[in-house]
Amino acid sequence: METTYSEWRKSEEYKAWERKQKRLDTFVYTPIRIVIFPIVLLVRVYKWVYHYDD
User: Fold this and answer.
1) What are the pLDDT digits (tens) for 3-27?
2) What is the DSSP string of the chain?
């Protein structure tokens, strides 16, 4: 495979890969962010509120 990066980006293969990445981002990473972010926030607030004074 001797094609350069710019040639690959113009190809149909790149367009298919880009569509797949966008779909992956929409259906996998977005829900993970939506679920994980509030949990992390709650844990940090909980630790901040209920911290123990040593």
Assistant:
1) 788 888 899 999 999 999 999 888 8
2) ----HHHHHHSHHHHHHHHHHHHHIIIIIHHHHHHHHHHHHHHHHHHHHTPPP-
